[in-house]
Amino acid sequence: MVILIFIFGYLLIAFENFFSVNKVIPSILMAVICWSLIIFLNIPVYELDQHLILKKDPKYLLLFHLGKASEIVFFLIGAMSIIAVIEKYSGFEAIKDLFYTNTKRKFLWIISTVSFLLSAIIDNLTATMVLISILKKTISNYKDRLYYLGLVIISANAGGVWSPIGDITTTMLWISNKVTTIILIKKIFIPSVLCMIISTLIASYMPVFNGYIQIKKNDLSKYCRHRGFFILKLGLSLMLLVPVLKTIIGIPPYMGMMFSLAIILVIVSKKYRSASILDDAFKKVDISSILFFLGILLSVSSLESIGSLYSLSHWINETVSTWKITTFLFGLISSIIDNVPLVAATITMFSYPLNHDLWHFIAYVSGTGGSIFLIGSAAGVSAMSMEKIDFFWYLKKISWIALIGYVSGFIYLLIYPFFSL
Fold first, then answer.
1. Structure confidence by residue, pLDDT tens digits, 21-66
2. Residue 103 DSSP class
3. Residue 336 near residue 366, CB atoms below 8 Å
């Protein structure tokens, strides 16, 4: 019954546009129903502790998994709040001058590079939303703007996978102690760059990117630009401080993010005498995304607790010849269904040690694979809703570019051991 509820809820999430049901609703419902069935029917539940399967009380185990899920939830709340502060003081508007150029092809490379780098710090979803806002103010032709957005999605997803704070799936792997910051960057940065560069290079030869472009200059006042740059640099620096604090001091990422949030609130409230900055920031926190992640993580934990994911991992290991093929297929699957539950399930299915190559492969494929179809990533879904991008237009014009970029980076991951000999 628990498995059937999960499958039904998963289908509602994967095809939310078809069923016209916000994915938050089935996410929360299936979490509550799955755990309620476990507790009410007294289904035996287990916890994997150092490769030993230990029987536990359902209510205790629910509280344990709630604590693990809360680490990600509070990390996201802190990150979203910092982004809200930057937006309030026009921090992202201040970088509009970076996009000033006179050719479409050069503008494509600028927008792809900025998207790639920005998503590594503020996450791919937020980076995409910021660049959509900038593109609306710089590219007046709607059809041209769609092509740029297609490459923004690919670049943002590629940029998010090599940073522990750049993509929610990579963050999940990082917080779950599957990867460490330095080795993650060392293993994933180059394939991510290859994915972005090869995709952008292919797109740059498309006819739509020939010719010249006229971009309006920044209309912010000198004071607002100066203030925006200051808040942007402060916010991004504090977010980059989070993995540094985890590496040096050892504090959990969510505590580091909360510390960074407190610092930026103190500085802004004192420097600009804004007593309401905290309320303004929290009003812009995406509560629906927070609840979605919470529901998904608790739902997956219910399957972990009854042993279903443990059995599934054994079946996969016996059926598929190598985990590298498994990860490649996972990447293709993530282009169709949401990669958050996919990675959440992977974390609990496999018991590979810290920094095993499987986790780095999962980090890469779950993010870049989501670019192949428009509905495969949060960045793509947000672009679809904000700019009314047609699914089949993206499939025809952009998907093949994303697939080539995805395969290019994956091939590098396969041959990387030969370079390190």
1. 888 898 899 999 999 999 998 888 876 554 445 567 888 888 888 9
2. B
3. no
Give, in degrees to the nearest 5, the angle at Cα 76 between 92 and 301. 150
CA atoms within 13 A on the CB side of 296: 29
- Provide the residue count of the chain: 421
Interior angle at CA 177, CA 243 and CA 195, nearest 5: 70
Of the candidates 351, 366, 353, 345, the residue with the CA atom closest to the CA atom of residue 302: 345
H or E element that contains 155? helix 142-161
- Beta carbons of 217 and 78 less than 8 angstroms apart: no
pLDDT band at 216 (very low <50, low <70, confident <90, very high): low
267 to 88, 245, 275, 279: CA distances (angstroms): 14, 20, 11, 15
Centre a 10 Å sphere on the Cβ of residue 144 and count the other Cβ atoms it contains.
17
What is d(CA 386, CA 132) in angstroms, rounded to the nearest whole number?
8
The pair of three-digit structure tokens given for residue 288, joined into one six-digit string: 């629906």
Residue 43, classified by CB atoms within 10 Å of its CB into exposed (0-12), middle (13-18) or buried (19+), is: middle
